[in-house]
Specification:
Layout lengths: L10 E4 L10 E6 L10 H15 L4 E6 L4 H12 L3 E7 L9 H8 L2 E6 L1 H4 L5 H10 L3 E3 L7 H8 L11 E5 L4 H9 L5 E5 L8 H5 L10 E3 L12 H14 L8 H13 L8 E6 L16
Parallel strand pairs: 2-10, 3-4, 3-6, 4-5, 7-8, 7-10, 8-9
Antiparallel strand pairs: 1-2
């Protein structure tokens, strides 16, 4: 698996004097640096799936996502790098009319897009529907939306080995919660794990994640910083991203990591963390999704 070089990951420390030393450390695990297209957590969730697909003799990766899905994009790139074909089942027939930059890049990477109605998309975990896809695409290995399967969680768990013991709080963005599940299981129980949801009402993720966790593995989901909903943003968020880049040379993505850092900064200002907190934020990547706001960004 040396097509992707995981040694590119590193930890960047932010200057805590900015926060009047309200916390002891605020560091960022830069998973965004491993590859320009399969960045961040997406590679960790896909790698076991790529191995499984190849060992099963499949020649195609088939997966599911919306018009802004980083997972679709990463799957298209992973397939192309490993000599596999890819098929993306895309939520919503209207998505075919005006391809988003993400879907455009998927097709450039060789992914065949299959647009389905919201009703059909809702069957993405239905056994009969999956069987019909298996019959139709006999050479395909099917990966659930967001890479949310055993291989995905196992790959996410391997991120925990990149986390030094000195941290008291681990913060990350959540979409399907697959990455959080994997990491939470693999870390000692007394480390606080905080998930930041980029969509409205994201607290439901507590129920999605819990069945995948071992006993006594606490975590919290915060859903206050959704900025209007999944994929939504406003001028404050853009200004925040630009200031982060100016101050720390840290590029954030508009869908996930910018909302997480905004939330963390707000919690620090509110005195949520103890002054001896050593916080590690996971940069889960997603920078390709900034194409739609590129004209507003200074990086
Ligand atoms: C997909 C994605 C997430 C969410 O990961 P899940 O495992 O689905 O919770 C978080 N951050 C970024 C940048 C992503 O692209």
């Amino acid at each position: 698996m040396d097509i992707i070089d995981e040694r590119r990951v590193y930890i960047q420390s932010l200057d805590t004097a900015t926060f009047n030393d309200a916390i002891a450390a605020l560091d960022v695990l830069r998973l965004d640096t491993i590859h320009p297209e399969i960045s961040g957590n997406k590679w960790y969730k896909l790698k076991g799936n790529v191995v499984a697909a190849i060992s099963k003799g499949a020649n195609t990766l088939l997966t599911f996502g919306g018009a802004y899905s980083n997972h679709l994009h990463a799957t298209a790139a992973a397939a192309s790098l490993h000599g596999l074909k890819s098929i993306g089942v895309v939520r919503g027939l209207h998505a075919a009319e005006n391809l988003t930059p993400t879907l455009q890049q998927c097709t450039e990477l060789g992914m065949k897009l299959k647009f389905v109605s919201k009703e059909e998309y809702a069957l993405k975990e239905d056994a009969a529907y999956l069987n019909s896809l298996r019959t139709k695409y006999a050479q395909a290995y099917i990966i659930p939306e967001g890479g949310a399967n055993e291989e995905g969680r196992a790959g996410a768990a391997s991120i925990a080995s990149l986390i030094p013991e000195s941290y008291s709080h681990i913060c990350l963005s959540v979409g399907t919660g697959t990455t959080l599940s994997g990491i939470r299981n693999a870390l000692p129980a007394d480390i606080q794990v905080m998930g930041f949801a980029p969509m409205k009402g994201g607290k439901y993720l507590e129920e999605t994640v819990r069945p995948h966790l071992s006993e006594g593995r606490p975590f919290k989901i915060f859903d206050d910083w959704h900025f209007g909903g999944f994929g939504k943003w406003n001028a404050d968020l853009i200004a925040f991203m630009n200031s982060y880049y100016t101050q720390y040379a840290l590029p954030l993505d508009v869908v996930y990591t910018s909302k997480m850092m905004f939330g963390i900064e707000t919690l620090i200002a509110q005195g949520y963390f103890p002054t001896n907190a050593h916080i590690l934020c996971i940069h889960t990547g997603g920078l390709q999704g900034n194409t739609s706001v590129q004209h507003l960004l200074s990086f």
